[in-house]
Amino acid sequence: MLQKGTKAPWFEGADENGNTVRLGDFAGKKLVLYFYPKDSTPGCTAEACDLRDNYERFLALGYEVLGVSRDSAESHRRFIEKYSLPFHLISDPEHRILEAYEAWGEKKNYGKVTVGTLRTTYVIDEEGVIADAIGKVNTKEHTKQILR
Fold it and tell me: Which residues are catalytic?
């Protein structure tokens, strides 16, 4: 994982509508940048819905929320619509952003080692510096982890 106090890597990707989203778009704002494996799976849905349910709280504290996965823009649109997610999701099929944020690598799933998305969240401050890094995400109570 990237360490607290390091400059957040530059990123650029397309959201669910095909619009380009860049790290620079969040200059002067706090950003919750979360990486998750797959739209509409139980853990990813629980995490997204927890962030959705607390979205107004994030905004009130000056945070923006942005999710990233390898899923397509179409998959993201369906996920957002189905669960009324108020934030954007970036499609990263070639896992460039995932790799830049060290959210891509080996993981164990039911005893089998695979390579894929490592569920990770970074809080980036107004200056573009990583203020917090969360690697052991509690999908049902992720907001508490972020705002602790």
Answer: 44
